[in-house]
Amino acid sequence: MVNLTKRIGALVLRLAAFGAALAALIVMVTSHERASFFAVSLEAKYTDMAAFKYFVIANAVVSVYSFLVLFLPKESLLWKFVVVLDLVMTMLLTSSLSAALAVAQVGKKGNANAGWLPICGQVPKFCDQVTGALIAGFVALVLYVLLLLYSLHSVVDPFLLQKS
Amino acid sequence: MQMAVSKLVLAATSRKSYKVLLGLRVLAFSATLSAAIVMGLNKETKTFVVGNVGNTPVKATFTAKFQHTPAFVFFVVANAMVSFHNMLMMAMQLFGGKIEFTGFHLLSVAILDMLNVTLISAAANAAAFISEVGKNGNKHARWDKICDRFATYCDHGAGALIAAFAGVVLMLTISAVSISRLAPPNKCSYSTAATPSVIP
């Protein structure tokens, strides 16, 4: 009975992580804005920054992986592999989130020492959508860290449960 | 329960994974420490001619420091934290004595290693993408590249980045080895741990 609750909890976690990664992906992809500025038109798309492209790709990979693991049967031998893959996916999520955050921070505040002006004043809607995508990515990351701990526990279980 | 404890002890002190883990930790410690130090001491000052007043050129001095970019500050701090973690784990492995053999210790080492893997990969990637903007500029946002003017700064930063990425790969391997040490040696899929011939 306890096992069933744990399994349902893990499935719910993974479904939530899949949803968060998918949301981050979709919000980032649909973010574009065109602003006209003294006869100079500036169009901001997510493909302008390499970090945002990496963010989209990483979240796509994580979404597809989560979707596939949702259907993994309980007694499959692949669960040990899932621990390693969960770690790799968490690494992908942190690296893409941190890279996108670093670039977005420069876009919002600029970098006076390098002579880089902030662009958020000119394309506020784009900036807001990117912020939303980053928040969804952060939620996906937190859920994935919890999932990683759960997969580790379920694979190396019952031994450690008795010890600690 | 006693048999289970001794099985775990044998898994933890099995000589191959013990030496491998120690060697990997030494490498990861040196890689992340060198990345932190090289980026921490990264500074370049240059004077440029910014204009002409009549016939005399006007010079101004510019400095490129790592503190100017928050991503690089995060890079230095994260690399320092990960190298400290590796040093701590090495010390515990060498001088830990009896604590090393408890399940709680092995589990906490595995979890801490996993968290540090994510930390170092985040830091390395953030610095990498910011450096890419600094090297190539960004036409859409009208951000100029700075590497053509501060070549030494960029080179040192690139060296620190390479060391950090080596640290990422090493930390991932260390994490995998720590997780594999958690399993008792009789499991058929973990054949790297030495299987005991006699169960005490």
UniProtKB/TrEMBL annotation, chain A:
Name any GO cellular component annotation.
plasma membrane
Pfam families named among the record's database cross-references? CASP_dom
Membrane-spanning parts: 12-31, 51-72, 84-107, 133-152
Residue span, Casparian strip membrane protein domain: 7-143
The cross-references to InterPro entries, in alphabetical order and at most eight, read: CASP/CASPL (IPR006459), CASP_dom (IPR006702), CASPL (IPR044173)
Q: Which UniProt keywords apply?
A: Cell membrane, Membrane, Transmembrane, Transmembrane helix
Please indicate which superkingdom the organism of origin belongs to: Eukaryota
Q: Where in the cell is it found?
A: Cell membrane
Q: How does it sit in the membrane?
A: Multi-pass membrane protein
Known partners and oligomeric status: Homodimer and heterodimers.
Protein family according to the UniProt entry:
Belongs to the Casparian strip membrane proteins (CASP) family.
The name of this protein is: CASP-like protein
Organism for this UniProt entry: Eruca vesicaria subsp. sativa
UniProtKB/TrEMBL annotation, chain B:
Q: Which InterPro entries match?
A: CASP/CASPL (IPR006459), CASP_dom (IPR006702), CASPL (IPR044173)
The residues covered by the Casparian strip membrane protein domain are: 16-170
Q: Which Pfam families does this UniProt record tie to the protein?
A: CASP_dom (PF04535)
Could you give one GO CC term from the UniProt record? plasma membrane
**Mode of membrane association:** Multi-pass membrane protein
Which keywords does UniProt give here? Answer: Cell membrane, Membrane, Transmembrane, Transmembrane helix
Q: Where are the transmembrane segments?
A: 20-41, 71-92, 104-130, 158-179
| Compartments reported by the entry | Cell membrane
> How does this polypeptide assemble, per the annotation?
Homodimer and heterodimers.
UniProt family annotation: Belongs to the Casparian strip membrane proteins (CASP) family.
Quote the protein name from its UniProt record. CASP-like protein
